[in-house]
Design a protein that fits this description.
single chain; 288 residues; Nucleotidyltransferase, domain 5; five-stranded mixed sheet; 12 helices; 9 strands
Length: 288
Amino acid sequence: MSDQNPVLIGVDGGGSGCRVALRTPDGSVVRTEGGPANATTDRDGAVRNVLHAVRAAVDESGLADGVMRDARAHLGLAGIVDQADAQAVGTAFTDDLPVARCTVSDDRTTHAIGALGEEDGFVISVGTGSTVARVTGGTVRGLGGWGLILGDEASGAWLGRMALSRCLMAVDGLIPHSDLTRDLIDRHAGAAGIVRFARTATPRDFAALTPLILADDADPVAASLLSEGAAYLDRALTTLGLTPGARLCLTGGLGPTYAAWLAASNMAHLTRSTGDALDGALTLAGNA
């Protein structure tokens, strides 16, 4: 195999799962999925889940182990907050699966590159977590991505956690009940059940409540949460310097949901994404 046409491995990892795309030398692409891969929530578990999904892709591709030694990989994972995190994840990955080159970034980088391709612009990525990014001349500047405990505003995990918090406020008489709060309280067998759930809930667990919130966005509690999340995203775009004529993409499982809640002035910039985070990871793997 020529070094000009190596195997490329792209990984998109988040709090609810990871996805892998493996591009073979003949240009065909094998895609697999795996468990959660948030480097802050559980770095060792994230690496294990990524490796399991990558090995599944290798097995499906039928490529020989010797070919993989020349492969190039890029891992874009939620929860990578600095270079030390990136280096630790990269080392753990290559110790188990030796490849020629492996780079690691946070997932806002792969979302931005995937959505915009080679163009400048802005990307809102909302899934289990959330990030907002601006790309200028190939350089990515991002906001957010700090994890559920300290951030991830507007995300699925944030929506789920905040909805349960609103339930307890309603129980205390601080806000009126709504159909959503009553439903969530019933599902958890009361306020005590909500507290017990929250003791061990992961971002993925909180995010699993999102469909209940989106089922009726006219519900006053659901509407207030979506409005609050959108206000954060609007503020992030302003901070990053969204200007007239700039391109804006909404990505991630929940990104498009906010199209109805963002400021009209920001929505005027909306364009279709070129690709997704997995496409961005493959692009960065090719540049590794």
